[in-house]
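Loading example: each entry is read as two labelled lines plus one structure line.
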Amino acid sequence: MGDTDRRPDTAEALIRSLYAEHGRSLLAYATRLTGDRAAAEDVVQETLVRAWKHADDLVEGKGSVRGWLLTVARNIVTDRARARAVRPAEVAEVADRPPVEGDHSESVVNTMVVLDALDQVSPEHREVLVQLYYRGRTVTEAAKELGVPPGTVKSRSYYALRALRAVMAGPEAEVAR
Amino acid sequence: MSEHDHTQLGAYVLGSLAPDEVRALDEHLAGCAEAREELAELEEMKEFLGEVPPEAFLDGPPEDGDLLLQRTLREVRAATPADAPKRRRPWLLVAAAAVVVAGALGGGVVIGRQSVDEVASTPPAGSKHVTATDATSKVTMATTVEPRAGWSWINVNVTNLKPGAECEMVVTDKAGKTYVAGSWVISPKAAREGSRFGGGVLVPVDQVKSVEIRTVQGEHVVTTPV
């Protein structure tokens, strides 16, 4: 079986597995950034194609695959917004959307490093941070969701932030850049 | 809150305390330099968390269908060989995600052999092997569950599948929870010669109860109890 036979199979398998695992996350993120479902689908498509073209970077990078994909999706949105900005007629369309923040080369690294750090703390710590920070739940709501007393949610969120700090300060974080 | 119990500061920084708790803590912070110092450190962590979008914690494929997947696959199929990466090791790539991961070892013999060389030349100690044939579908599956650090890598070799079938590998743990460890489509060659597939799940080997293949349309194909 030659190269030309196996390439499409491998590429398809990669795209299918990335889509099955990360598709929902990527599409939701791109939809929020673009404010437009069709544009978001284009962004996700381009992100997955880039992942296929850069499979080796993904292997060798220390950050999570999820972090890489989200970062690439954001860069595509940013680049497209910039391209549109040189055509004044379309500027109005983007004006009332949340801005895509900051210097993206800086953010690129940070999203991956932080997601990677979150992968290194315990599942309990990660979950409590997701509930309180990313889902915006109160201690009472998170306690119900996680099935633990409110006091545990409080102390766990404290130790979760301490654990995250230890990971970020550790040698791992430096290797991950 | 006692003088030196600062464990409420986490929920305080994340904005999750009730208003009366916030007031009590504000009072404490006003008179405690140690607590203010700790607060500053925790606030820095909160800023780091802000680098990750909340959507990062959604899993699985998009909810409504796979037209987007099909479009993406068409683009990749149509790409010229020059666009292709020089080396491709998708099973390692996806294993890096280390949550619910999957990598096809492909319908082809060459890919199967290469991946075995790369991932593990022989199944590691503690691996479990099971073979089963489904009475209805007549599909036979040889399953190997390999131990990893707290998770498992599962290789299957499935024969007698229909070409074009879109399959999912579903792992059930002893608590009854199910995990989709990847999905793939059966090429005509894989239908003739057997389809090899591998996927990882965040379930320790001794907690894996069964490995099932079903179609993405939900039709049962074959199950190997482990």
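Residues 1-6, 89-109, 172-177 of chain A have pLDDT under 50 and may be disordered.
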